[in-house]
Amino acid sequence: MRAAPIDAVLLVSFGGPEEPDDVVPFLENVTRGRGIPRERLAEVGQHYFLFGGRSPINDQCRALKAELEEDLRLNGPNLPVYWGNRNWDPYLPDTLARMRDAGVRRAACLFTSAYSSYSGCRQYRENLADALAEVGEGAPELVRLPHYFNRPGFVAPFVDETAAALERLPAGSRMVFVTHSVPEAMNDASGPEGGRYVAEHRDVAATVAREVAARTGRDAGWDLVYCSRSGPPSQPWLEPDVNDHLAALADQGVRGVAVVPIGFVSDHMEVLYDLDTEARATADRLGLAFTRVATPGIDPRFVRMAGDLVRERVTADEGDEHGERGEGAAPAAAGDVGPAELTGSLGPIWGNCPAGCCRNLRGDRPAVCGAD
Question: Which of 56, 198, 269, 296 reaches 20 to 30 Å from 276, CA-CA?
Answer without folding.
Answer: 198
